[in-house]
Amino acid sequence: MMIDDGLLLLPWILALIMFGLWLWSEHLRRIQKIKLTGLIGKDMLTGLSSRRHFLDIAAREVNRSQRFSNPLTALIIDVDNLRHLNKTYGHISGDLALNHLAEACRQSVRDFDLVARFSGEEVALLLPDTPLDGAIVVAERIRRKSAENRICMPDGLAFTMTVCIGVAQTKNEMDSLEDLLLAADIALQSAMAVGPNKVMY
Question: Which regions span the lipid bilayer (predicted)?
């Protein structure tokens, strides 16, 4: 008995159609995840707040601190020699270093402190109701945690990382968020100039 060639191809055609539908559903799922991540203000690599979310919340915290005369401090953290890590171990090392830093920050702050991926190499923290000396304690804790454990690569290689941190506090009720972040960034540049592995304020 002869079997039509079309019938022989039918299972393959159905399999291709099913595979195509699966690929399309995965594509839609990834797009949805990206949109949702953007809506909730999360950085996709580290899981920290996004820069935009940080700036929105931080502006409100500056207003609140001025209204109630509460101290407010900011930290800006930069991974030392991140470009060198990327060049030596590949770009995955930079991603692992940023995730390592994000975890060190999460372990070092309170639930209501704000931690965000501020730029490609930087993480920013906002510490409400925290004076400068308290913020320096937090910064030193993050600096130590960042350096104390080796970061393991998928291929078995491992490396350590250090960070430089700039710390600043609002000085008066006229200070804006921009003033606070600029002061923290100036302190960071000073730390990097004498670093690596330094906290400056």
Answer: 6-25
Which H helix or E strand runs over 105? Answer: helix 91-106
Identify the domain containing residue 79 by its residue range: 51-200
Residue of 26, 103, 121, 178 with catalytic role: 121
Q: In what helix (H) or strand (E) does residue 166 lie, and over which residues does it extend?
A: strand 163-169
Read off the pTM: 0.79
The pLDDT-based confidence of 173 (bands split at 50, 70, 90) is confident
Closest Cα partner for 115 from 54, 64, 63?
A: 54
In 2-157 the beta strands, taken as DSSP E runs, fall at 72-79, 114-117, 122-128, 151-152
Extract the runs of DSSP E, i.e. beta strands, from 28-98.
72-79
Distances (CA, A) of 28 to 32, 43, 88, 94, 169: 6, 20, 36, 28, 44
pLDDT tens digits, 2-32: 455 556 677 777 878 888 887 787 766 665 6
Number of domains in the chain: 2
Residues 117 and 61 placed together within one structural domain of the fold: yes
Residue 122 appears among annotated catalytic residues: no
Q: Are residues 139 and 190 in the same domain?
A: yes
